[in-house]
UniProtKB/TrEMBL annotation:
Annotated protein name in UniProt: P1 family peptidase
Lineage, uppermost ranks: Bacteria, Pseudomonadati, Pseudomonadota, Betaproteobacteria, Burkholderiales
Gene3D superfamilies: L-amino peptidase D-ALA esterase/amidase
Pfam families given in the database record: Peptidase_S58 (PF03576)
UniProt record similarity statement: Belongs to the peptidase S58 family.
Length: 349
């Protein structure tokens, strides 16, 4: 089955979050029997984020999650570290690693300077990964950071190694869309998702109820449908459009539109969180007056469409990129491509 292109907007040249200039992504993947996990790092720009912050905002669609750093980000509207992704039990280790990394460039943080607000977000990969092993260490964050580049690997990599989507193999997905905003010009919205949510019967692929087709071929369909959905997704949006924190919160909220199109109802046990940042203007620490040139709110609709489409595309890309993975206690998640091949389903309805 061919990978569909979501929506009418064109993608950037990489069709990833790295189409927003300056943004890079790195992974460290742990693949050792019952340990199927890792760390993914999104780096918003190549400078010192603590001294040259970016406007940012968070939209909590459903708050069943254990992330770090979101309270201050919501209050002040700035991002001052890379965004790190990992599993639910490894937030502490990665948070410590983030702080240590920030201190290397800003040794007075927590002394004569404010303490750094490190952002770490998570999903629960415990079906495939042995969470009790606490396998993720500070060194794995450093490896992911060192690997950051504009070539964004997707699928069962980094933090996405042990993640599941629609009872299939999920993980890291990324996409981008170009949006023409009035007479101002063209801007890019890029998305990266840590996809770990969904029940198979609910899977919708570019408007096609593909999950119902696959469930119809599965003997365990009834039992699967009766179990509660306990997944999560982290959605990161980057844009080069000049937006402030308030506008970025509006942009982050539209990630939920892309998520819903794939079949999510934001279940009780689901942590569905979107973070958006703009690279257009940096905020220098200690500035007494911040001057910003912003798009008018009535021009934002093309960016909203780009956000929804790029998130939906990123979720689809994660499914198509992931390979079948076997992990803890023999648990296995099959890749969507393997399932489609086994079912001999046509590439179109």
């Amino acid at each position: 089955m061919d990978l569909p292109h979501i929506g009418r907007l064109a993608a950037g040249p990489r069709n990833s979050i790295a189409d927003v200039a300056g943004v890079t992504v790195g992974h460290c993947t742990l693949d050792a029997g019952p340990v199927q996990t890792g760390v993914t790092v999104v780096v918003p720009h190549g400078g010192n984020l603590f001294t040259h912050k970016l406007p940012a905002a968070v939209a909590v669609i459903n708050g069943f999650g254990k992330s770090a750093g979101l309270v201050q980000l919501e209050e002040l509207g700035t991002l001052e570290t890379p965004v790190a992704l990992t599993n639910v039990f490894s937030v502490g280790a990665v948070l410590t690693a983030q702080v240590r990394h920030a201190l290397q460039s800003n040794p007075e943080s927590g002394r004569s300077l404010p303490s750094v607000n490190a952002v770490v977000m998570e999903c629960n990969d415990g079906y495939l990964n042995d969470l009790h092993a606490f396998a993720v260490q500070e060194s794995h964050f450093r490896q992911a950071l060192a690997a950051a580049s504009t070539e964004v690997e997707q699928g069962a990599v980094g933090a996405g190694r042990g993640m599941s989507s629609f009872e299939l193999k999920g993980g890291i997905g990324s996409a981008s869309r170009k949006a023409v905003v009035g007479a101002v010009g063209e801007f890019t919205v890029g998305a990266l998702v840590l996809s770990n949510f969904g029940k198979l019967p609910d899977l919708i692929l570019d408007g096609r109820p593909l999950g119902r087709e696959l469930v119809g071929l599965a003997a365990q369909a009834a039992a699967s449908d009766a179990a509660p959905e306990k997944g999560s997704i982290i959605m990161i949006l980057a844009t080069d459009a000049p937006l402030d924190a308030r506008q970025l919160k509006r942009l982050a909220t539209r990630a939920g539109a892309g998520l819903a199109r794939t079949g999510s109802a934001y279940g009780h046990g689901s942590g569905d969180i979107a973070l958006a940042f703009s690279t257009a203007q940096q905020i220098e620490a200690g500035s007494e007056c911040v001057h910003a040139s912003l798009l008018a709110d009535h021009l934002l609709d093309p960016l909203f469409h780009a956000a929804a489409d790029s998130v939906e595309q990123a979720i689809v890309n994660a499914l198509f990129a992931a390979q079948t993975v076997r992990g803890r206690d023999g648990h296995e998640r099959a890749s969507l491509r393997d399932c489609l091949a086994a079912a001999n389903l046509p590439s179109s309805p």
